[in-house]
Amino acid sequence: MSFSPFSLENKTILVTGASSGLGAATAVECSRVGAKLIITGRNEERLNSTCKLLIGQEHVQLAMDLTREENLDHLVNELPVLDGLVLSAGITKTVPVKFISKDNIDKILQTNIVSSMMLIQKLIRLKKMNIGSSVVFISSIGSNKALFGNSIYSTSKGAVNSFSKVLALELAPRKIRSNCIEPGMIPTKLSFEGTFSKEQLLEHEKHYPLGFGEPTDVAYGCIYLLSDASKWVTGSVLTIDGGVTLK
Questions:
Q1: pTM of the full predicted structure?
Q2: What pLDDT is attached to residue 194?
C-alpha cells in the first residue's frame, strides 16, 4: 500500500451515534481507509445495518444509551486503548423559548454534550486514549447561526465547541488532539423525514452556495482530523457547510 497521511491503518476508532446519519457515514468511510471500528448507538437494528457496511472483519458494535452512566462505565471498561474518537450522537427539538421545558433542556444537553463530557472523562481516567490520538466532536453551524426555535440545540453545540478547546489544551502534553466539525444542514431520509416537505428543502437549499452536501463530506473531514495528516491541528473548528455561513 502506498503511503498516505490520511490512512487510518492500525488505528482503533470509536464512533458514537453510528446508527444513522453522519455517525454511520463516518464509521463506514473510516473503515474504508483501514480503521478498526467500535460503533455505538441506541437503535440496535440500525446499528446492525451500519456494521454490515463496514469494510473488514474485526469491527465491534455495541447498542446502548450513553446518557446512562452505567452504560458509559460498561463501555469504557470493555474498550481497548483508542487512537481516535468521533462523538456524533445528537438530538434536536425545535421549540420557541417561551415554550421550552426543563425536560427539553435535560434531554438535549444530556445527549449532545453531557454524555460526551463524561465519556471522555472516563476514557482519560482509565488511560484509554493513546498518545497522539484524536477526539472529533460533531458540532453544528447552529452554535453560531441563530435559527428560530433552535435555542437549546444551539446552546448544546456552543458548549461542545467550548469544551473541545479546553480539552485540547489539557490533553496537549500527551499529544492528544481535540477538534470540532461544524456541518451545515445535510438532509437525510432518517433525519428529516416528516420534518420538511420536498419543496421546503429545495427552497432552503437555495441559501447554500454549493448546494446541500452529503454525509460523506463530513466523514472525510473526520478522517482528516483522525489521521496523522492533522497531527499539528488541535482546538480548531472546521466548518463544512457548502458556504451557507458566508451570507
A1: 0.95
A2: 55
